[in-house]
Amino acid sequence: MNLDTVLTLFVLPHVVAGTVALALFWMAAVLQKGSPLHRRVGQGYLLAMLAIILTAIPLVILTWMRGHPVTAIFLGYLTLLIALTCRNAWCAIRFRRDPARFAGLDMQVLATTTGLAGIIVVIMGLTRQAWILVAFGMIGPLILLQLAKQRRARKRGQALASNWWLKEHYGAMIANGVATHIAFFQIGLMRLLPGLETALLQQMAWFGPLMIALLAGRWLDRRYSQWPRARQTGTS
């Protein structure tokens, strides 16, 4: 069995999981937040994302073995990024009363690994003038900066907003939504309609969801910015 044949064995479940995730993402988005149905759909979405991660791992390995190391490294980095955001989306709800557990060793290791992988992707992008790699790779260093900022805040015992878990949750879900939509527009739609595959549309497929996500994040931050600061990081 050659590599191309093995690759096809993982592509179909990966695509199916992505399709399910896209549908559940919008179902969760329109449902009343915090309702039982919203929670169930959200859990289903994260399970679909888990399936995407598990099927992506062999795809990354096979891509490397087929002689495409740059693509494999980039896809591996994106897989790490999705794993981190899925973990945070779930744990923000589960450990809403325990921010120290949310920022536990598993998150520290995964975030650090993702951040370092992002730096590698940025370097690859700069050396090849591949600006998509640079733009998305920069998320990695930003994760490292945020991690360092959180550590300093915990050491200083700075106040933690009472809705910290909500911001972590919707921030992670927005990031997951970016990944889901990029996969749909850049991979799924372009293959279904190859006539649309132009340089401009490819750029829009990558950066369009990212720009919308940034705007959505700012809007949500403003909406929930008035919550009281009730917890102390040093006592949690």
From TrEMBL:
Tell me the domain of life. Answer: Bacteria
Where, if anywhere, are coiled coils annotated?
Answer: none
What parts of the sequence cross the membrane?
Answer: 6-31, 43-64, 70-90, 102-124, 130-148, 169-188, 200-220
Q: Which UniProt keywords apply?
A: Membrane, Transmembrane, Transmembrane helix
Is Transcription regulation among this UniProt entry's keywords?
no
Query: What's the name of the protein?
Result: DUF2306 domain-containing protein
State the species of origin: Wenzhouxiangella limi
